[in-house]
Amino acid sequence: MPKRILQGRVTSDKNDQTVTVLVERRYAHPLLKKTVRTSKKYRAHDPENSFKTGDSVRIEECAPVSKSKRWKVVQAEA
User: Fold this and answer.
1) Alpha-carbon gap, residue 26 to 71, rounded angstroms
2) Helix (H, G, I), strand (E, B) or coil at 70
3) Measured between alpha carbons, how far is residue 3 from residues 60, 62, 69, 71 in Å?
4) C-alpha to C-alpha distance for 50 and 39, rounded to whole angstroms
5) Full-model pTM
6) Are the C-beta atoms of residues 67 and 14 closer than 8 Å to each other?
């Protein structure tokens, strides 16, 4: 099964080797047909502490790194 890749924005880089990424998705409401925006935060592994707040990044599923981290940062978006 392929690993999921999500795109989001770094909202926090205060922890060592960890960034918090806000991923927003849009979908049409099944009954009202209105576009709905939902967001979710993921904690991702950043071993070099290279990403800062406000950066646009891609994260990929991985094996659990800690209790809350199941994603790793793959690359920064332009």
Assistant:
1) 21
2) coil
3) 7, 8, 15, 10
4) 24
5) 0.89
6) no
| Single-letter amino acid code for the residue at 7 | Q
- Residue pair 5/19 in contact by the 8 Å Cβ criterion: no
How much is the pLDDT for 77? 78
- Report the b/e string of 19-38 with b at 16+ CB within 10 A: bbbebeeeeeeeeeeeeeee
The CATH superfamily of 5-76 is: Nucleic acid-binding proteins (2.40.50.140)
Containing 3, the helix (H) or strand (E) segment is none
Residue 49, pLDDT > 80, answer: yes
Domain borders along the chain are 5-76
Check whether 51 has a pLDDT greater than 80. yes
Kindly state the average pLDDT of the residues 47-65. Answer: 96
**Of 5, 38, 42, residue with least CA distance to 20:** 42
